[in-house]
Design brief:
Chain lengths: 297, 245
């Protein structure tokens, strides 16, 4: 059977990517575990204070609301505006868990490990699960589901009546600190955001939702797993159509970074770099996802 | 809705010589897999496959075809698993599965593109001209638009007329999520900017008769010899793949 060179290498790329990104972080699990109760109260208070904007309805269960605002892309060309408006949206408070994804594959067997089309998920899809419909010791029910492709993540989101967040939505939420919409100016926050990158991924991921909620109430954005976004494949495309895919190879040399908004935002660079190296069928041991929803007008 | 769609496809296929076998498959929209006898779609099939190049009604008279399953499933990595409904520049409904059985060269573009896309299309024309006549005859060139908002069938028809692009070309538009799916599978990156223009990868993809990626050619104004070789290879291999099923 004819196999394309393009697709036959993708599994290996997935593995290589996993090794690289896996050595970059470890969640701040232990630290946040005992702090989470204290912050639950803080969350409740800040939720009331932060969501006083009566033009935005309250979020559905398990989601937080992010009011309309602006997003300043990390990398843009000179033709692009410094910031783009982002409509109000809801974002899952935490990443989708193994247990939740198990419900999905039970309802849609074509997304089970042994049945999924290799077109939509590489070899290694849900490989840490015990079987098609059994989680097992390496996939705790409350841990974030990982080793899922973009196609699988989007199918799950659609199944729940939601969608994947856009890059702008995800980054805008993650830019918030614990007490303000701009973590970069919050004392200690930039350093906190870097800690994760210094530790390897644990063999078995901890539960979702243990991280301290940020200003909007979203948890674990910077401390558990990397997350798929709907438009990850727009990463590394400039406004110049004549610059073809070769741009992707050069953007992370010095010339590419020169167009960046904030050279100190290392985590954002890492995320942009990761997104540009992903393909939609990739399954990575530390890439999961959470869902979003538009706020109906 | 599905029934209506199937009828449209039937009407479309009826005017394409030698492709009437597809009608049998289209009449069963619930089945995601494609037509069973890809070999029958190939005008240049070698003699060993010739007995399969007959209508399903004559199946019993052609013992060599018995080994073929009634409805061969699509290959594991066939892009034709995308079950989206596209619309061509004549306003007709098209599924990717209907492209099965022939070499396909596909690229993504948008009609109001002033820079890269005209060059990309001219690259495709150059590739097409480089093919041996027999291969060119059976190869379909497909352009799929990113611009779900502006590229209506009428706009695509005008685009076809402007170049001009002959009957060997198919111009498609589709829903935003379907365009995104196809781009993901091809590895094409695109992004709409504030002015409504699209920044995008320039990528020419050769699909084999089963809809699997056989070759990809990145960039503009490059040497298309490798891509042409891939199309010829796919054309030669097509009957073999059909027989394999």
């Amino acid at each position: 059977m004819w196999r394309s060179p393009q697709t036959s290498t993708s599994s290996r790329d997935s593995e290589r990517l996993a090794k690289i990104s896996g050595s970059l972080f470890k969640p701040m699990f232990s630290r946040h575990h005992h702090l989470s109760a204290a912050f639950a109260l803080t969350l409740a208070v800040s939720a009331i204070a932060g969501r006083a904007d009566h033009t935005v309805p309250s979020a559905p269960a398990g989601m937080v609301v992010i009011p309309a605002g602006n997003y300043a892309p990390l990398i843009r060309t000179k033709d692009e505006p410094p910031s783009v408006p982002v409509a109000a949206y809801y974002l899952d408070e935490r990443a989708v868990t193994n247990a939740e994804f198990l419900d999905f594959v039970r309802a849609h067997p074509k997304w089970q490990r042994s049945r999924v089309s290799p077109l939509f998920a590489d070899v290694g899809y849900l490989a840490h699960w015990a079987s098609d419909a059994e989680l097992g010791p390496f996939a705790p029910a409350a841990a974030p589901v990982v080793r899922v492709s973009w196609f699988a993540a989007r199918a799950y989101a659609t199944w729940t009546g939601k969608r994947l967040p856009t890059t702008a939505e995800w980054e805008r939420t993650a830019a918030a600190g614990f007490t303000s919409t701009n973590g970069a100016t919050e004392p200690g926050f930039p350093a906190y955001a870097l800690v994760w990158f210094s530790k390897p991924t644990p063999d078995t991921l901890p539960s979702v939702g243990l991280g301290r909620p940020n200003f909007y109430g979203a948890r674990d954005l910077l401390s558990l797993v990397w997350e798929w976004v709907d438009d990850f494949n727009t990463a590394m495309v400039s406004g110049e159509s004549r610059g073809d895919t070769g741009l992707e190879r050069t953007l992370f040399c010095g010339a590419g970074a020169a167009g960046a908004r904030d050279l100190t935002n290392y985590p954002a660079f890492m995320r942009a770099g990761l997104r540009s190296s992903l393909r939609a069928s990739y399954v990575v041991p530390n890439v999961g996802f959470r869902c979003a929803q538009s706020v109906s007008p | 809705m599905k029934t209506k769609f199937a009828v449209v496809v039937l009407a479309l296929l009826a005017v394409v010589p030698g492709r009437s076998l597809l009608a049998g498959d289209s009449a069963e929209p619930s089945r995601p897999t494609g037509p069973s006898r890809a070999s029958a779609l190939l005008p240049a099939a070698p003699a060993t496959d010739a007995c399969c190049a007959v209508a399903p009604a004559a199946k019993g008279a052609a013992p060599c075809c018995d080994e073929l399953p009634a409805a061969a499933p699509l290959a594991a990595r066939s892009l034709y698993q995308l079950d989206a409904k596209w619309t061509d520049d004549a306003g007709k409904a098209v599924t990717l599965t209907s492209l099965r059985g022939q070499p396909v060269v596909v690229a993504m573009f948008f009609a109001s593109c002033e820079y890269a896309c005209p060059v990309l299309v001219s690259d495709l024309q150059r590739l097409r001209a480089a093919l041996p006549a027999a291969v060119r005859e059976q190869t379909r060139f497909v352009l799929v638009s990113f611009d779900v908002g502006r590229d209506t069938s009428a706009v695509l028809a005008a685009y076809r007329a402007k170049f001009p692009l002959d009957a060997g070309w198919t111009l498609l538009r589709g829903a935003a999520t379907d365009v995104q799916d196809l781009a993901m599978l091809l590895g094409v990156k695109y992004k709409q900017d504030a002015r409504g223009q699209f920044a995008h990868s320039n990528l020419i993809t050769v699909l084999n008769s089963g809809g699997e990626i056989a070759h990809q050619h990145p960039g503009l104004l490059g040497d298309i010899a490798e891509a042409a070789k891939a199309v010829v290879g796919v054309a030669q291999r097509a009957p073999f793949i059909a027989k394999e099923r």
